[in-house]
Amino acid sequence: MGWNRKVLRVNLTAGTCTEEALNMQWADEYLGSRGLATKYLVSEIDPRVDPLSPDNKMIMATGPLTGTMASTGGRYTVVTKGPLTGAIACSNSGGFFGAEMKFAGWDMVIFEGKSAKPVWLYIENDKAELRDASGLWGKSCWETEEKIKEQLQDPLVRISSIGVSGENQVLYSCIVNDLHRAAGRSGVGAVMGSKNLKAVAIRGTKGVSGIKDFGAFLKATNDAKKVLADNAVTGQGLPKYGTQVLMNVINEIGALPTRNHRDVQFEDASKISAEAMHEKRASDGKTHLVTNAACFGCTIACGRISEIDKTHFTVKNSPKYWGASGGLEYEAAWALGAANGVGDLEALQYANLICNEQGMDQISFGDTVGAVMELYDLGILTA
Ligand code: SF4
Hints:
six-stranded mixed β-sheet; Aldehyde Ferredoxin Oxidoreductase Protein, subunit A, domain 2; alpha+beta; binds iron/sulfur cluster; Aldehyde Ferredoxin Oxidoreductase,  A, domain 1; single chain; 2 domains
């Protein structure tokens, strides 16, 4: 299958980037980015390691289908010992970054050690080098992407970065790629921040190698795409409504955790649902949803691109938030909304943007705020 058979090992303490062969026995035995990267991680670290110490490692990995035309094959995975739970963290992201890693000729990048000063990694096909990130430290994920593209004079470079959240090692920081896709869960962004690694930028022009029988692969992927297209969920529900389609469904069956799990239904669920994203606003006659969007090579195209009402109190003085951006997904809409009793769709879109901008996991953030609100209600926390 589509392996490049190459791993990039980046030692941040020494400032070196070295190439090594992918362990093909492990690639066969632990199929997929998650299994393979986990095998590498547990083979290389002491399980008792402090997740935020230089002795922890962080692996960005692709799978055998990444970068191919297989639907959902554009994803990549970050595996590390996670600071939030102390267990193995495996966080997965869509967009285009994973495919670009494959196109540059790498299956996996292993980060070890800790840089003495902030750095970012630039990979251009076979070349890899660490660059000074002192001018990027303190910047958001969005500003970081913009500045790296400017510096490289390359609008097509794909970037994963941490925001201020990851720099400060907030335990549920994420790694954001392509502006609004994220390896979001388990605090992988905090590990990246602990290593003084601000961003990884990749430009690859090689395509995918290693597919033995391209004709058979083409037939298999096309057959699978037909199955997805003919299915009511992957062919209709997800492209039209995205994952947020779950909001009304889960609320109806009484399984929507509301106000820090104190209730199981939210009276304003319909106001923050996927259907509401399609409704025209009274203020400007536009729908919240601008279009759906796909990760690399995916025909499901469940991603959401939306716009906030420019007159809403959250953004009316902030033009930078007026453009189209990613969201909402079901989990973010639930955690920022129902989990806190908030039924204002614009407010959720705004909170979602801030989390993407600063590299913070919307789900853990929303749930944490919900817990704080209950603790306040109970008098355990005070103003
Ligand atoms: S478009 Fe949706 S289904 Fe396809 S890879 Fe991206 S997140 Fe997954």
